[in-house]
Amino acid sequence: MVGRISIMKMRICAPRIFGRAIFAGLTLLISTVGFAHNPNDNGLADDPAVAALLQYGQGQAVQLEGQMEIVHQDFKDGHGRFLFTLKQVDGTRVPLKFAKHPPTHLLSGDHVRANGRLSNGNLLLYSGSNVKQTGGGSTGGTVTPSIPVPNTLGPQSTLVMLVNFLDDTIQPYTVADAQNMFFNTASNFFTENSYGQTSITGTIVGWYTIPDSVTTCNMSQMASDARNAATAAGVNLSSYTRYVYAFPDNGACGWAGSSTVGGNPSESWINQSTPDSQTIHHELGHALGLWHSHSLDCGLTAAICSSGNVVEYGDRLDTMGTPQTASPHYNAFQKERLGWLNHGASPPIQTVTSSGTYTIGPYEAGGSGPAAVKILKSTNSAGVKTWYYLEARQALGFDSFLADSIYYTQNETAGVLVHQGTDGDGNSSQLLDMTPATPTSRGWFDASLATGQSFDDSTDGLSITPTNVSSAGATLEITMNGSACTKANPGVTVSPSQSQAVTSGTSVNFSITVTDNDSSSCAPATFNLSDVLPSGSWSGQWNTAVLPLSPGKSGSVTLTVASPAGTADGYYTLAIFASDASANTYAASSSATYLVSAPAAQVVSVATNQTSYLPGQTVSITVTMADGTVPEAGTNVAVTVTTPGGKGTTLNGTTGSNGVALINYKLSRRAATGTYQVQAGTSVLRTASVAGASTSFSVQ
User: Fold this and answer.
1) Which of 211, 322, 445, 663 has its CA 20 to 30 A from that of 91?
2) With contact defined as beta carbons under 8 Å apart, do 296 and 285 qualify?
3) What are phi and psi of 291, to 5 degrees?
4) Could you say which DSSP state residue 437 is in?
5) Average pLDDT score, the chain
6) Are residues 578 and 634 in the same domain?
């Protein structure tokens, strides 16, 4: 890279006489360095050498049309490389070299028109924008969430050709082994990932010895020779939409697997004497139309950034990412591109457009509910949208390795994975590391956003908090276009805090008030109410056990509690609980006392202020009520005065705080002489019999 920059500077500063020599040097550089194997170049990075040649007008300006071929090579040392080729109608293959931004919106088989400069058999182009799709081919148009990659649903008719070389005729595995690799394991992987919509079917043929040497690596020649051998053996190639060429280790190639990105038929190469499942699933993913699943490295303190390092194979939870023994599910962005999510009969992805509480099921299980959610992150000047994708992984199916302590380290099944991806750009899948302070090397599976933690994108006014994650899925609190939501424990109060003394078996109503203490930017919450009553046959009945509230608001419900008949006198504690239904870690409790007290004997006495009276005087009658020795206040009493002739008069009163009621009886001036009977009583009973007392006075 330093050499390239130095040459460019020399061309600007050198005298004109050296221009031709420097130009020749650039040509040599582009042919020997720019296109040579570079272990740090994936074929998508900016290429200053190509840019320099274009700047100097190298080659002839041309417009070429043909069929796009995009091939990716996955090298055994962990790096990869994309190769772009234009296949013209006459069969000519023209390598495409881009100064920057190759066309990651295209697939193999797309018909395109390319404008560039033809130099030394290569077409030099400034960027992918110089390649325009003319219609037809694999996609017939730009792939979007509503228009997925074609030919990804249903049985994928696959021809696997086993070949070896003139100077190495080894057959390292049997046809039966290959049958199991592709039409059992790989087919099961596709079926599970697609929620039953896609499978691998077809035929294994060979072994064929092709006229190629193990010391060379010409991919297109090996493919052509393999197809010729199959045709000579009577195979009808047109019956298949996917070709796989599998052969023993060829050290000249260097890569473990390679594949076209899309195509009909697609072509994949497996360069392994003992093919592993992850390589097969990875290359067949390319064949379907998938690019790599990357990760975004923003350093040790941030999960999202505008200028981070995109790690080519960085997604450790995706088979299109980090090479490993396991074959994790493709992520939600990738599955949406394939039509395996959010298309037709596929499980849905819920698009979040407002703050609220959202639920997703276990990602691997599918079902009618959302398997993931997506949230708009940004829209560029051309109207192209970038999204966040959230999914809840569990140790199910091909993701069962997450339960293996060799792989699992912290939080992959206890949180949600967060990816980002851009519409129409197959190469934009990025895993965001929600624990950036920990290492991001292979085998470290802790990128999830764990329960109770929050991811805040202040630029977009977005906050995401998983409030509950389990084998049943995940519940997410999402706040959009505002300050971050801060969850808090609710407030709970009970009234009365202690009931009046009641006899056993009595029903007592308690009013429970709950307050939502979440910050104002949080979505409304629903609180579940429950109780713990004393042991025994106590009963509790809620008028409602679910209370929806907005942040800062309060609401009340009623709990009716009854003790069993025969409960001993005493103070009994009732426990009341309220928890956020979407995040049960946010909870609070309170308590109240239910008082059982058997009534003391009710004491009633009545007396007059004198024993005898004259006609016209007033008789002052005192009625005293008590529960045992405790004055009984507020009790209604009735006093009946009966004359000597048998005529009765009833007077009413109420006891005061001292348990005494004063009632006056006025004697007329012609009151009959003799003995008057006074009977006092109450309708408020503490025993089964009527409480009462009597006395008498005389009139002279």
Assistant:
1) 211
2) no
3) -95, -170
4) T
5) 88
6) no
Q: CA-CA distance, 671 to 484, in Å (whole number)?
A: 87
CATH code where residue 552 lies? 2.60.40.10
pLDDT for residue 122 is more than 60: yes
| Average confidence (pLDDT) over 40-54 | 76
Single residue among 479, 514, 541 that ends a domain in this structure = 479
- DSSP H/E element including 257: strand 255-260
Same domain membership, residue 298 and residue 253: no
Backbone φ and ψ for 220, nearest 5 degrees, come out as: -65, -35
For 16, residues 6+ apart whose C-beta sits below 8 A from its C-beta are none
Bond before 496 cis per omega within 30 degrees: yes
Listed in sequence order, the residues at least 6 apart from 512 whose beta carbon sits closer than 8 Å to its beta carbon are: 492, 493, 494, 529, 556, 557, 558, 559, 576, 578, 590
Task: Decide if 449 contacts 434 (C-beta within 8 A).
Answer: yes
Write down the pTM of the prediction: 0.68
Quote the tokens at residue 42.
């994936």
Q: Which tops the pLDDT comparison, 509 or 136?
A: 509
Separation between Cα atoms, residue 336 and residue 262, nearest integer Å = 15
* Helix, strand or coil, per DSSP, at residue 342: coil
Q: Is 460 left (phi over 0), alpha (psi -120 to 50) or beta?
A: alpha
Q: Let me know if residue 636 belongs to a domain.
A: yes
- Convert the pLDDT of each residue in 66-80 to its tens digit: 999 999 999 998 889
Mean pLDDT of 354-377: 94
SS (H, E, C) 109-121: CCEEEEEEEEECC
* Chain segment 265-314, per-residue pLDDT in tens: 999 999 999 999 999 999 999 999 999 999 999 988 888 887 889 999 99
72 strand-pairing partners: 82, 259
Distance CA 221, CA 641 (A): 127
Distance CA 561, CA 419 (A): 50
Assign residue 202 the CATH number of its domain.
3.40.390.10
**316 and 381 in one domain?**
yes
Regarding whether 115 and 212 lie in a shared domain, the answer is no
Q: Are residues 260 and 238 in the same domain?
A: yes
Task: Answer whether residue 550 is part of any domain.
Answer: yes
Three-class secondary structure of residue 655 per DSSP: coil
The CATH code of the domain that includes 691 is 2.60.40.1930
Q: What number is the average pLDDT over the span 521-528?
A: 86
Structural domain includes residue 419: yes
Kindly give the pairing relationship between strand 462-470 and strand 473-479: antiparallel
Q: How many domains does the chain have?
A: 5
Domain identity same for 550 and 615: no
Are 415 and 434 in contact by the 8 Å Cβ rule? The answer is yes
pLDDT over threshold 90, residue 630: no
3 state SS of 695: strand
Q: What percent of the chain has pLDDT over 70?
A: 89
Radius of gyration of the chain (CA): 43
Domain closes at, from 479, 502, 535: 479
Domain containing residue 42: 2-133
- Is the separation of the CB atoms in 159 and 235 below 8 Å? yes
Residues 304-316 as b/e (b if ≥16 CB within 10 A, e otherwise) read beeebeebbbbbb
